[in-house]
Amino acid sequence: MEASERPPTLLGSASEIVAAASSEYRRRRFSGRHPWLAFVIAPTLSLPILWAGSLLMLVFGAKAIGFDSESPTATAATSHWATEMLPFAVLGTLILPVAVATIAFCQLAIKTAVSRRWLLACCLVLAIIGGAANSSVSLPTPGTKGSVAFGFGVSLPPSPQQIAQFLLPLLLGCWMLHVGRGTAVSVSGN
Length: 190
Hints:
The protein is mainly alpha-helical. The protein is built from seven helices and two strands, in the order ααααααββα. The protein has a two-stranded antiparallel sheet. A hairpin with an 8-residue loop joins strand 1 and strand 2 (147-152). The two termini are 37 Å apart.
């Protein structure tokens, strides 16, 4: 009897073969072997690093256009423009790192072919931490120094900004699930 003539019971059913192949594929990568570390702990640790980087870019950008805390040299037009744009810059320093982390970890989940629950767990962790983040920046004036504050907390009722910060990772995760549906994201397993 040749290999092509073997009864299907020797190899198992098609679903058993697919489950075994998926499991072996997931074990090839660190994130597949340790999904708790890759999709719960790593996003938690990556957000503070990304936020610190974005706040540093905001501070260095402010210094580059003349808003040094020791002796601000910005013109009146630049000062007016910066004051008008500051809320958007602060929102960007909070939201962009969360969006970058969400997309990166979702791509990792899709590439690793881990269960959808890990992708969704990662998005939920990023949504909770990202939604609780608050930042405040004030520009220096000739009589005062500028300040940068960052912290966590939720106001009751939540502000529209915090709602947006919470919903963004969840919406990006759902979008990545939809886009990645044609790839190797599995429904069951680790």
